[in-house]
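User: Before I run my own analysis I want an independent prediction to cross-check against. Here's the chain; please return only the structure tokens and, at the end, one sentence I can use as a sanity check.
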Amino acid sequence: KQGKASCGVARQYTGSAGKITNCQIGVFAAYVSRHGHAFIDRALYLPKEWTDEPARLKAAHVPSDVSFATKPK
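Assistant: Structure tokens:
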């Protein structure tokens, strides 16, 4: 991902690349047991630099009630 138009793209650590690079991060919640697994919810992680720029959020059509949260939250 390059540029400033793709929602949530920033230089940040990504486990799949194992380094800091331009990327989008998705946060997923899943249920896993010996009987099976299922995705419960998902969200696009927005870095602080994104949530600090209301015009950028509006241009990317991010809902107005979205604010910064750490990945664990």
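Sanity check: The chain has a mean pLDDT of 88.
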